[in-house]
What we know:
The chain is mainly alpha-helical. The protein contains 13 helices and no strands. It has helices at about 10, 25-30, 40-45, 45-65, 85-95, 100-115, 160-175, 185-205, 205-215, 220-225, 230-240, 240-260, 280-305. Helix 11 (about 230-240) packs across helix 13. It is globular.
Amino acid sequence: AAQRQAPSAARIARPSAPPIGHKPHSLARVMAANTANLDAESALDLTNIRSGLQRMEDSIIFSLVERSQYKSNDAVYAADCSQLGEFKLHQLKSAGSNGCLGDWFIYQTECLHSQVRRYQHPTEFSFFGPLPDPSLGSSATRGSDNDKEPILAPVPPEAIVNKRLLEIYRTKMVPRICGEGDDGNYGSTAVQDVHCLQTMATRIYYGLFVAESKFRTETEKATKLIKAKDRDGLMAFITKSDVEARNIQRVILKARTFSQDITVDASGNAVQNDQPHYKVNPEFIGDVFRDYIMPLTKDVEVEYLLRRI
């Protein structure tokens, strides 16, 4: 047999050192990707917004499917978790929690994310606080990102709906997607809860970009409604029922695709099933968007617009 040729020098050469004077990408742009290159024109472009919202649908559906593999595990949401200890429990309650294990996971995750500037993004809001100051890469962009014109007007406290979302998730969603009982997977349950809640919250507060875009597009009409404090008028201003109906149907179709159990034959081909089995009820996932996520999103938009001027 022919002898195997040794790799050429070109193939094994290691990357050369950067030239003198080369400036590497800033740490901030690596650690805080969702704040990098954010400008009003792209952030408020409705085509970009629609694309982002559709991608967020995928994340929400996948996260709920993943949560469904565990039992409801109500112990994760029970107040005054003794396993946390006195110090952690006091710290957690000072942040506005009832002291449950699930809240501890949320708060600790947010403390970590805060340090890499997650909550400097204009549509990211934490469930608990206070949080640590940003410490990774924050000084590297002091002369750039922080000097940009704000994309949004100040977001009022009335537009923050995290407490409502948390209550809805634990009392309305979890019982419908998870089996009753306790399987002991508390840590895995709490981790997946964080993912579910953060993806839904991100989707909801993205509505702030929608509200601002509509305000800038139809400023005169919006201003008249705002000055009249016409809450119902503003709700009608931001609502497109036909679009919402199409979005819900798209979510249901995605949920059917993402959560269906697939069986393959000996040849590796999918077996057609007249009665497919789903990990979660796709119709309920549609209900989640129609009854909870979309109404919360519109509440956020209306509260924001009411204080826009």
